[in-house]
Amino acid sequence: MKEQVIVSTELFQWLNEQTDLTSNQVDLVDGFVFMLHKINKHSSIRLIGERKLHPRFWRTHDKTFGYRLMGKKKKHIALLYQFYIDVAYAEKLVYSTDDALSLTERGKIYLKMHREDQLETLFQHIW
Questions:
Q1: Which of 7, 47, 69, 93 could, after both became Cys, cross-link 78 (CB 3.0–4.6 A)?
Q2: Is the pTM of this model over 0.90?
């Protein structure tokens, strides 16, 4: 049985605000795949707590996608980023050791999947 991912209403609201109904672009999957590629590229990413990546990791993510979800005064990880981590664990795409997060073989397979299948995986945790 898959681990359940809790999705907050605030995340739904933010996603709705980001949606461009005239575009086929879906940033949700792009951001998730970007996170997994970055973890894969670096072999492991430092954790600062259970299931919490160092804020520096997310600030790079913010700059790349222009989300501005992380800031100097924000002390919590944005709901979107927590969703990404929760889904990655639920789908067994990542694993953690004492203080680092790494990609599993299943995670590497996910990165090779078609974009529509990648998005479907994320949607399964939203709906």
A1: 69
A2: no
